[in-house]
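writing this on my phone so excuse typos. first protein, seq and then structure
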Amino acid sequence: MYTIGTFDYDCTKKCKKTEHGNAITSALTKRAVSNEKLARYITKMCRNFAEVLDDEGRSALHMAVSVGNRYDIVEYLIRQGAVINLRDRESGQTAITRAILYGNLAEAIFLSKNGANLLPDNDFINPLQYCYRVKKPIDNENRCETFVWGRNKNYNIGIGNSQEKTTPDYLDEFRKNKIYIQKVSMNSYHSLFLTDDSELYVTGHGKGGRLGSGDEMTIISPKKVRIPFRDDDEKIISISAGKNHSLVLTNKNRVYVTGSNTFGQLGLKSNPDMLMSFTEVPVNISDAKRVIANDFTSMIVTDNEIYMFGTNLGQFGLKREVDKVITPRKLINFNVDLEIVESTNAALICYSSTSTLLQYFYKYETKTYKKPLMERITQISATGGIIQENHKNCPRSDRPLRFIVLTEFHNVFIWYENTEKFVKCTFTSSRFLEIDRLIWCNEDILLSFMGNLYRGTATHELKHRAIHIPGEYQETYVKKELSTDQKTKIELKRIPLIDKIIDFCTDPEGENFIGLVENPKKYFSLPEFIEKTYDYTNLFSSVNVYDTIHDVCFELGGRHFPAHRIIIQHRSEYLKKIINDQFPNEKLVKLQELSDLGLPCDIFELILRYIYTNQPIMKNEIERLTENYHQTLTMLKKILTVMGLTELINSLKKNSQKIKSPFTPLNREDFPDLYDVTLKLDCTQEIRAHKCILMSRLEYFNMMFDHSWAEQDTVNLQSIAIEYMQPIIDFLYKNDINDVREAKYSDNYLYNMITICDQFFVEDLKNIFELIASEKISVKNCGEILEFADAYNCEILRNCCMQYISLNFSRILELRSLEQTDPKVLQQLNKFYRQFYSLVSYWTITPYANAVSDDDLESFISDFMVDLNANRNPDEENLTFKQKQKNKTGKLSKTTLDKRNYEKTGIIAMLEESNQDHIKAQKCLEMKKQELQEEINQVTVKFESEAKIWTKVSEKSGAKKKQNNVLAALKVNDVMQNESKSGNSFINLTPPKKLDSPSSSRGTTMERTPEPSTSKNLTSLLTKDSEEESPRNKLTFSLADITPIKMKPGKNRKRLSSGSTQSVSIPENGSSSHHPIVSPSNPWKIVPLTDVIKSPIDLEQESIMNASTSMKKSQNRKSSEINSVQGPSQPKSFDSIMQNEREKKQYFEKIKTKSLVLTQLEEKAIEELKEFYNVDNIFDETITIERRRMTCEEQNQVNVAKWYQDKKLI
């Protein structure tokens, strides 16, 4: 089988044949072919299969993301080097644009994760604007969410501090409290917010009373202010923020004002210096639509009139002699409906849709202009205006007047004061854009287009060569009003994280911004919860005289009717009174009164059915059970009246099959004397309950109490805390859905409750919590909630989450909230998204006619194999996208090169220093080894000289101890020899050496491998009494025979340590045999001999040492071994030390809260493991047995079962 590396291609890695591209893109349209076969086909077709293009400039990646269900191929192509941001020649669309257009969200998320940019196409439409949207609103349209960003020098964006916010983000004060804004107004020092409930919030500097809060204090986050309305139904309809004052207009045509009155802009006859709170302006107007607050003036706009008050700077159309207008004054009667009114500090512009003229007041003059191209104007925004007089602290302004207009055909024109003509605006990115709204942003332009917000930089009054079209008809007004030799170019830059923008504003300096975006839940709808009936049907159908759950049995007419005392006492006062008064402590209850009234047994069974199941008695049932229907019915009504079941009598009259349950909800605390089961919970908490209620409401307890647990009165649920189990038990009793939904829960509590309800199969309560969790879905947590819903089979939560993602995918994609979601879950999202917007019917790519046939494809790939998980370059697998791009370009800035040179110099210096330290450490280690070797040789020589003059053994116990040591050594040798014969083949790490002298045998680790005769001879030597033998006979064998051997841990150690000791005798002949010592074959690592072989003096000293000293030596020995292999140890970082301390603290806190039973079980298990591995008697290695410390993620998890779709994981 060929692979990409072994196949002989007829092209190179730089192949650009369109024939190959056409074959690859057409083959990818075949939906019936698997991804693995298509990957083999496109890989074999061309060596440059990842980048080759077809006739339309599309690559394999363009087609793979468009077809759908090609996630594996998309991932394979990107790993093989496909260009992610490549535009096709057909429409300039990138791969991520096509993925969104065809509804393949999983592929779009994967592309974004791997560095795909949101590049616009030839029509200047970016990928986010191709996300589909619902057209019919479901929720309130005015419920907008507020985004703010800017320099925030004067606290006028209300984020609670004065820090700069470079990117748009939610205003937390409104988001947390679910406050929705419908209108905003901003100026240099403060901002006003109008909610959909007609409440006013303010933020910013309060100097001069501009905030209307009653003082001059600065408010750093939005605060609600009170307005003294005269009527209860009075509501705010318009707001405006000036530089030093604020205006408010209500639906009762009343105007309220607050702030500084330096220029007479408050409109009050008393002309106060300032107002600290809102005060009504006395004015008699009707049909008021809007108020406008500038730096020096205020205006009230009605349908056809304008009222103004403040300082006259030429913008009122009045004479120069008029200095100030203290009270509201009507400017002029236009006699037409005013559609648009805009103003600056120096000018006023008015436009009426019924007129063809545009009128403005500027420099004490009034002028009119015709509309550009005779198109209806939809919006006007003005800026600038020359102020010549220095009138009472009015600042002088030299900025010329400009106003920009937007027409109904989305044409943009700018009127310039110096030419007094309109200049048409063009955009560098596209010839035509359907602009929705625009305003001036200092010298720039802020505009919205298809829901996105852009900031445009204008290049004004460029020379433009007019194109004259010959013809008889000439529009003379065009030459006068519209400039033909000039144009203005606007370069747009998108503001990120803003989508579905509705309204926006900025301060005069263009430094702070507020945007109102569409509510993400505007079209979001939750499913209706269908409440199930609250009854005990399953309990009634399963009760019998032989079960162990029923605790009362009624006797009537010789028949027995088993029942449950708590249900009877809760739903029938008559039967409750009989039980408590006549049979308080008896299980059998005789219904003598009902028997005397002539109640048939079958009818009483129907009454019990009604008590348990709420099912009424039907007419046909009475006719079937009795012969005389009317007589039985009369008798039954009398009995039901005695029993107090009036609702059942009414159902008999109506003969209705359905009846509303007349019984009140059951409280667990109502019948404490009937408790028969105790739930043992975490932290020794308990809940007392009734078995029959738990069995009837929950299958979990029904299975438990119906079988082996029937006689038990306790249930061990110690893995669950009481705060989670209490709501479940209360719901089983009350079935109160509203009580559950109205409570406030944290996110973690909701998810834990869903998990526990899934464990106990409480479907109703689980569905309620899923609905509550669905209300908390946001653009930032939707990915986590979706994975949680998929893991715990939460159908309601999963569908709601997918619906929310489908409605707000543009925001979610830009926030990267789904990049960590499982690809399998995202592929399910693809299917839901296409069905939600019905994309299957018209956005589906059918197989191309020139695509390869199935037979030809099978024969073509029969000898070729690919790995869909293969990387183009394994070295770049862990690199980020930006690092890969730098590696592709190969061009780095001078600063980056200098930085890398400094890094290289530092790394080289560190390496040299570490090498020197390593060399020094090696030299010290060699010197220590030589000193240790000399010491060992001296001790060995001394031992051999002393052994020759030994004459007796001091005590018999000492001989027995040495005898046991010999037996242990022999046993180890036999076991190791048998293991070597069983087929274990270990590679020798060091070549075997034959040692001639004891001194030379201490250079490396030894392993005794005695011959079979050795053990036999030594065993026979030790059988006789040691007292009758000479001292020399006792030492006729080599000391190597009792050398400790490095043993394997585990079962072998257990087997060696647990074996029985046998008596061994020493022969009288005193023959001494020395066996050659062979270098061992150690399967783990090379260990110095000094760590294994000990002289008799060392052995005697070690027998005297205490346990703590031996443990310390073992640890030092272990660290020396590591240093001998790895070199000098590196010091721990401060972060690692702090992390270790935090883990220890969390571990001890976890131990404190653990129950005593579990702690005792763990202690017992630790002792058994220590005994099994013989920890206390082993000194050649360190074995530590302790509790496993849980990680932070494991500690945060709930200790309950986790249910998945196919299996249960505990």
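second protein below, same order as before
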Amino acid sequence: MALTVFQNQNTTYSNKDQFIIDSFSDTDMDIGLFFGVSLNGVFFDCLILSPKGISIIEYQECSGRLEASDFEDWIIEDSKNNSVNIGNPIEKIKNQRFALMDFFNDNQQENLNKIFINKMSGNLDTRHISFFLFFDSLSTDSNISLGKKISMWFECVSKKTFVSEFDGLRTSQFTFSPDEIQRFSNVVEISKIKNEQISIESKYCFVCDYSARKCDQKNINGYIVDIVDNIITIQARNNKFLIEYQKNDLSELQLIKDFYLNVHMRMKVNFEINLLHLIRPSDTGSSSDFIITDYTIVTIQPSWLVNVTDFTTLSFCERQAITKQFSKNPINEPILKGISVNEAIKDLIPDPDNILTKKDRIHNAYQSVGRYLRNNIIECGVVGIDSGQPKEDFKDKIKSEIKNIVNWIDNRDFKGKPKFEEFIISPELGLRGKLDIVFKENDEILDIIELKSSKKDYFTNGIQFYHELQVVAYCMMVMLKQKKKLDQSAPSVIYSRASVGIETNATLNFETFSNVSKFRNILLSSSIGLKLPMDIDDHHAKYKKKCIACSNSDIYKNISMIKKRKVSSDNQGLITKSKIDNFEYWYDFLNSSKIDSYLKYNNLMHKSVESRKQKGKLIEGEFVYVDKVFNQWKYNVLLSDNNQSDFRDKDLVLIMEKENYYDGAVKVAEIDVITNSKCEILVNEKIDFQPRFIATYYNDSSDKINNIGLYNAFFENDKIYRLFYDKVDASYNDLIKDLDVNLILGPPGSGKTTTICNKIIDDINNDRTVFVMCFTNRALDEIEDRLAENDYFNQNNFQDIVYRFNRKKYHSNNANQVSSGKIKVFLSTVHGTRSEIISKWQKQFDVCYIDEASQLNFTMCANGFLGKKNILVGDFNQLPPLISTKLSSKFDTNTIKNSFFENLWDKIAKDNIGGRCEYLKVQYRMNKEIAAYPFSKWYGDFNVQNFKEIADGRLDYKDDNWENDDFREILDPENPSLWVQVDSVSDNQDKRVSIDEAKACSQIIEKFIEYGQDINEKIGVIAPFRRQVNEIKNLVSLSVDDVDKKLIDTVDRFQGSQKEIVIISICSGENDNFLETDYRRLNVALTRSRFKRIIVGDMNKAGKDLREILNDGYTQKIHWNKS
């Protein structure tokens, strides 16, 4: 083995690392160097594992005479008698040492046993850890006075004495063989790097390809820890750099400072920065390590992936960088036309493998446009182009643009094969996007073309500024990925409405590169700080017509009041201080959550394949093309291993050629169905590479909907804000009446969905327009299916009256029969309210129903209230609002954690305002034995009654053969509530999967099926984690064919569902188990069954709330015999 180097992929390589590597490069000793290790939040510059033991290495970038003691600050004096206080590192050093000891000893020495599987752990003393703090050089008269205990394991050394001091270490009882070093790397999830990778200059710099001045440092990535004037201090893993900002454009420096203030100082979030193309200072006396010049590409918070298409939102007005996050996605004629032309161009550009005549290509293009318009008949209706002359005029405009594109194609040479909607991600540039058209040869992108259904720049008759940024950004991402410049001269934009010369080339040089990073940073910074650089914001006074024409001008005015804190003392005209404070509180929470989510996703995607598989975030398999289904391509993926992932039906995912999204080709896909052995996926474009992996995709749709709801409550409909924040008094009563707010609280099985559907049918009969908003598609499915079964639709066409937003059911033959003018009921998830379609279709509905309201926080729920009458339906004892990040103390409040529904119920029900709180007091789902525990524990104050016909109900069998089975106690209808005791295995390495519980669940299911219980209609299985869900599915599928995909699911997905038999696997012993830590999820799990509830798990590892069910007087305990 000799020397092996391991490096965290999230960190960059430094000169200091090279010194340590060089120090051991000639050794014959088996040594493992680990750079960038993080254990339980504690970071280590370097760890050395060897036959001598384990050593922690830290580095101080200074030289001179050191004065050091246990408790005082350490002072180092250089040769010029300049003294520097470097603090006292002892506390940090102790924390690192203890963190390393805890790493080996926690959980009954779990990691120790994984690494030293061939040694007796009792012989390993994890206290035997040495520590080296080394300096560039230390003078011989340094005064280092440390206590005896610390001196036993701690050494201050200089570079020149480091190796000799290491060689002088006594061999401890805590030593490492080559196999143990490799196993350590597996546990800490840090990969070995190849010899050719051990170089600080390993990254490609595209700026150098377009500049006479080559860089001295291609890349530095790290966290900004300080900014003083134009000097930026960056902690790049285990090295600090002083970076001097010398760009002529100082606005980018101000962006960095603003972001540092908003993110690092105010929100207490680490501020990451990535720098490409750096120069060393020419002045040898400079204190700076590198200089940011006009050529340098600066990317702030690169893990936050900005969509490249956001550049085009700036083309009308740069203030859109602020307003776009609070405005709904627009729908208008130019947008529909642009999408239609994009559909057409896929047929117009010739494919070398499928050569068609010009006439055939134009015909196919018209057909594609027609299909798109038919499939979006409602969108066409709300913008007034679904019929008559407006429709014909619209078609003529598209035909004119198609003609321009065809003439351009006839006079243009193309190299390579055309591909469309090529997805690309660049974590170095903090960008993601889809390229309209690329031409590829041997899997390499040669040319990039962006289509715009518009005209060229009015003043220059050339490429528009922000369109140029968009294609240059794509080009930068491609060059970084391919590690070379494009073969074609430059990317281009084609303007299909231009009269002549529709193609214009972008310029590739340091100025356009730098502008891409600058405006990307403006988009991000303005999303956090709600402020544009002054030079950009001021120029709008020159273009007042733009502000008059802008539909978002009010948004900018209102947000400006927040930022400038224009407070009104008399509450008239301006905005109150409390309202500003509340807006900023919510906005800080939403942004800190976003940053945290992006960082987690980026860290996940840099982990090894095996690590991501173990976490359930990656699956591997063979992709087989099936067919084209409407406008999507379908593939079967034959999984290489049994599915143990977190993936489920309808998830958006990444399909990848290589293990990392930044190396090989990537596409976004949707999982249609996933089973034990295969996965069916749908993609918008046929895959032109050989994919191997399916990985998680960070979908940021919730970010937008939260911001829109926030703005809506504070400005668009101020009554929603007051409803949430105001105290109950006479004016509050008037507010309730004005919004006509009504609450329906329905315990499990009380018929919330039935109540909603009955009310909707009544509304239809009374010619009222209805909007229904749900948190999940599953809840919307339930309402849609229940409505469709109503007798009313025996006489009326369902699709004429009920429209499901974002569910394309309108294809070819019946599409023309649908008209937006006939629709009375509009169904949408909360995410659908991002679009203007709803508000353009109906300014205000007669009635708005918000189902699952107890799962919606303030900002989500504020997207509802679209009716003259607003009815919120929910149960705050069931699933709460989903919070994807661990809350800091600032945000760990009921304001954030509780639903809007619970907030209103506490106010309105307490004072019984106008009889507006309805409580559904009869449950129709479960027999009395199953209902007893949850209803007495969580609904004791509401006196819920059991429906008589159900209270004594029992599971029915076709015969009595089950009575002779060994499983008869479990099968017995007279035992409605059971606990099947499965003793947990103490050495279970993955507590989110319990194999024994999964086997028990599978065998119990088989027995019910054997005695006539329909697996798809009558049986359900609930588990707290997706991985346990998939483990049970895998086992069941081995013996049962044609299993319903909804048979086994998580607690969250099962809310609103019911089965006659429900089996609950509790994953015994998992500390982060929702069934243990959140009573509301436990309540949902316990109340899904009608006649038989079986809890499977170890009661000795279960939480108090769950164990208490054994005292309800009904639940019986049976010990599971594994044989």
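The longest strand covers residues 53-69. thats all i got for now
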